[in-house]
Amino acid sequence: EILSLETCCKMGASLEMMTDEVLEALKYLDSLGLILYFHEILNKVVFIRPQALLKRLSDLISLSFLENLERFPKFAYTLPPDSHRELKEEGCFTIKLIEVLHKEFQDRLFSANEFLKLMKYLLIIAEVPHRDGIKYFIPSVLPWDRLRDDELISFDRPELDPIFLIWEDRQPVPYGIFPATVNALLSRKEKPMFDLTKTENKQFQHRRNAVFLTCKEGSLLLLIDEVCLLKLYYAGDPVDCPSILKAVKGGVHDAAIRFHYHKSFGDVQEAFNVHCDLLQEQHLGVVCHGATPDSQILEQVRCEEHGKINNLSIQQSRWFKYKITPQATVDLSKLPSEGSLDLKHLSDIVRSLTPVSHEWFQLGITLRLPYHQVETTRLENQNKVPQCMANMINKWLNNNYQTRQDLVTALEHMDVNVVLC
């Protein structure tokens, strides 16, 4: 079932083949599907029968479907404590579980470490840090289930719409692409980097069709497989959205390559829900990328139902670039130009910021309030914009020495026109 490269070279030599010729022959047979030879990652091992590799993987997946291990003494008394529960509920396992499932991994030709190395390369699993050491995440073994309302509340944000990724001809999400994309994101070695969101307190629960990822402190990315599209929700600084979208699309592309799909399977289009005023309904709107006469990139959205083309809303455009509409103007002339601001200026500040009230979250971040304070403001005020803005400014005024110029600098950084006199 498994041969070493050395054995293959000896067989080739008996046929008067050079080593380079043997390697090319192995790659050719692999391209035909007659053997499996992963020369990029395991160049010393050749799988003559794919079943040898598939059995190891299928046994791991089958274990996740067992409900009562007592009926299977082979596993009940040999598996590490809690390993079966962690696999079923969290999709995580350790190398010890693999070694118990397959004693033949003691073979020096194809060890448990090499099996895990190959599974990571194929994006079937991802290595994730854990308090007990290294664990491996395999989303394919998790249950498929609907998300709870309390899991989605963190992503109910007025400043950002969820974005969809769709395939050509509206075909369903290619088989295996979703879990492989998740694993590609978890395996990234450059920013933005992602960690598997902890689920100990049951606030979030990973599923085969929905995974929560932590991007940086306090920010969350939710990926959902909706069968016909991938849906992305983000709870964090909207400035990060373009880089996160690029990373997810890169993960889809990498997954398609690993699965040997046609290159078109790695190319996705962005889409949003668009509102139809006539019928008071929402339809899928596909993003159209173009350019203005001065060569500036322009994104618009085309309704799939009626063909109508509109400019992206501010909440949609942030996935491509973060910028408030140029028309936004804030008049700060009533605030003192010298000295510090305090709570007696609160009502004047909030009133002046009315034109950008929906930008309160980004303004708080730009004013250098800690992310957790801004997020707490959102939760405490249930996303009600006026209350959120007032409470955020209140916290800002209570945070050291603040001046009108600090507010001007933050607003100008957000491309807002500021009137001072």
Q: Unreliable stretches, pLDDT < 50, 5 or more residues? A: none
Q: How many angstroms does the end-to-end distance come to?
A: 82 Å
Strand order in space, largest sheet: 7-8-9-10-6-11-12-13-14
Mean pLDDT: 86
Classification by helices and strands: alpha+beta
Query: Helical residue percent?
Result: 25-40%
Number of helices: 16
Characterize the main sheet: 9 strands, antiparallel
Tally of strands? 16
**Beta content:** 15-25%
What does the overall shape look like? elongated
Radius of gyration: 27 Å
Properties at a glance:
421 residues, alpha+beta, nine-stranded antiparallel beta sheet, three-stranded antiparallel beta sheet, 36% helix
